Amino acid sequence: MVSRVIPVDPFDLVIFGGTGDLARRKILPGLFRRYCAGQIEGDVRITGAARGEMDTQGYRDFAAEAIMASDQSAGTKKAHLDEFLAMLHYVVVDAMGDDGWEELARITRSDRIRAFYFSVAPRLFGPLAERLHQHGLADGQTRIVVEKPFGRDLKTARELNRVLAEHFDESQIYRIDHYLGKETVQNLMAIRFGNMLFEPLWNSQYVDHIQITVAEAVGVGGRGDYYDRAGAMRDMMQNHLMQLLCLIAMEPPAKFNPDSVRDEKLKVIRALDPVAPDDVVRGQYEGSGGRPSYRNQVGNRDSTTESFVALRARVSNWRWAGTPFYLRTGKRLKERASEIAVVFKDAPHSIFGEEAGRHRNILTIKLQPNEGIELGVTIKEPGPGGMRLVDVPLDMTFAEALGPEEADFPDAYERLIMDVIRGNQTLFMRGDEVEEAWAWADEVIAGWEKRGDDPLPYATGSAGPDDALMLMHRDGRRWREIKA
């Protein structure tokens, strides 16, 4: 099996925050990989824009260092690297003032696709949109890429959408959630809607429950100031896990196009029941083994911000009535692992007797670190001695099933930036979708703020607070083990 690489049309891309962490770790290395793959060709111009004093050669040196740090094989691709670096330019721009905008307008060409990546603090989104409009850079060929967070509640999300809508049509706004660019997340739609095997079973009649886990082994690191104002609910649950829930629960769209897919996701969010206070557990990691606690890392010994949240959600529609969705995410947990587990119901009657034990089919979609899909099936244990049943996985870990070259997928940012250039919004969030997700999350946050309870402590390297285990135990269920 050979993957096809389809080149995109020539484009101009401006990265606001072009010297920032995201540009260094993801955007510039990702663009280089797409260039090496043959997806970027022709007369392309990539411009870094930031406040720091730097010239174009300095920016090319910065990009080369970032690419070499990200891709150890880049040193063997010197010809490609030199060609890619020749595409790069740099302009000193003041997002809140007028400095640099005339120069940016001069080198950004109007006869091709123009994309502007807002890799900056959210408070700069509005001023950037306004200045792009003022300097004639907001025509029909223009697309803007907006990084999260898209507000911190419904009110601020609405205001952000309003400001962007003053200068750009919704079809020009690409709200990026890198989880939607992961290969396995997109494969989830292929599994559901491309296989007759699963879709007839994808409902409350056959599915007992669904678990969505996004676990991180690291702490808040250098994001302490931001994270202590956001917390796990705003930083992860409201966007990343919500998007995964939507893809699992949505109805088949009439067509695989941006608005059809996003219409169905929106219906899921609107069908979510309010989450009862007893169905939410918050936690905060403690220090151990020389690693600081959450409060030490954020520099706030009285912090009541959660680094872990688990909850039970219900989708009130015909397909999912009665099937709970258990969602959890947290930092400093046992492993870095993200997965969706669709747990099917028991067979209505076991002909093998109690000694055969209890067995269930579980479809697991592994998002990271080892992307793949696994279906657990029950078989007879080999050997004499009667009918003993065991569960075995039908495993399609992509690196093993497709080979190392085929499984060397583009990073999520690579895929999504190419989709921006193509004008494909399928994997990006629409404004009304963002607002509905915040409306749901705001109610959950208001519930614990009204109670005034602090997050529960949990040990570094654990699965979170014990109360999160009880969230499922009281329903007669168990969380799956967190493992890579």
Automatic annotation (TrEMBL):
Give the protein's function.
Catalyzes the oxidation of glucose 6-phosphate to 6-phosphogluconolactone.
**Per its record, how is this protein called by name?**
Glucose-6-phosphate 1-dehydrogenase
Which residues are named in the active-site annotation? 240
- Organism of origin is Roseovarius indicus
- Please state every residue range assigned to the domain named Glucose-6-phosphate dehydrogenase NAD-binding: 14-187
Q: What GO molecular functions are on record for this protein?
A: glucose-6-phosphate dehydrogenase activity; NADP binding
Q: Where would I find the Glucose-6-phosphate dehydrogenase C-terminal domain in this sequence?
A: 189-480
Q: What is its EC number?
A: 1.1.1.49
Question: What's the superkingdom here?
Answer: Bacteria
